[in-house]
Design a protein that fits this description.
By secondary structure, this protein is mainly alpha-helical. The chain contains 8 helices and 2 strands, in the order αααββααααα. It has one domain.
């Protein structure tokens, strides 16, 4: 899985509409999706031990995660210390068209990477509409080349 380095802005800004197509093609699917996870666990096993419930992402969430690595738009940076990104993600009225595409990719990176440490963070970003808002904003700013 590819991760972009320090030259991420140049790389992302060089992407054509065709590069973005696999990601942007997810927008209508996400818009039609009502449920982004299934619940696993929470049952007693054959030894009488109860398992803790956990979230299983649906196909669209798994596909999104695969695509963001394949394009790639995942950026290698200290996402956990990126306070600006946290503020943007928490602001439900934030205008994503006010930031450039590389910054949106940093947001996606922070969400996807955080999911590795906080199970369900990616699903939550789908459920809240955050992922859809970011993707629609990327679609608004992608130039036909």
């Amino acid at each position: 899985m590819a991760v972009l380095g320090n030259d991420y802005k140049e790389v992302i800004n060089s992407y054509t509409k065709d590069h973005w197509k696999p990601l942007l093609d997810l927008i209508p699917i996400i818009e039609k999706t009502d449920k982004f996870n299934e619940v696993g666990g929470g049952q007693q096993n054959e030894n009488g031990v109860f398992t803790i419930p956990y979230s299983i992402p649906t196909e669209i969430v798994a596909r999104f995660e695969k695509v963001v690595y394949e394009i790639p738009i995942i950026i290698g940076f200290d996402w956990a210390a990126w306070d600006e990104g946290r503020e943007i993600a928490r602001n439900i009225s934030f205008d994503f068209d006010s930031i450039d595409i590389p910054t949106k990719c940093k947001l996606i990176t922070a969400i996807v990477r955080n999911n590795r440490f906080c199970d369900g963070a990616l699903i939550s970003a789908f459920e809240s509409g955050l992922i859809l808002k970011i993707l629609k904003s990327i679609n608004n700013q992608v130039i036909d080349i």
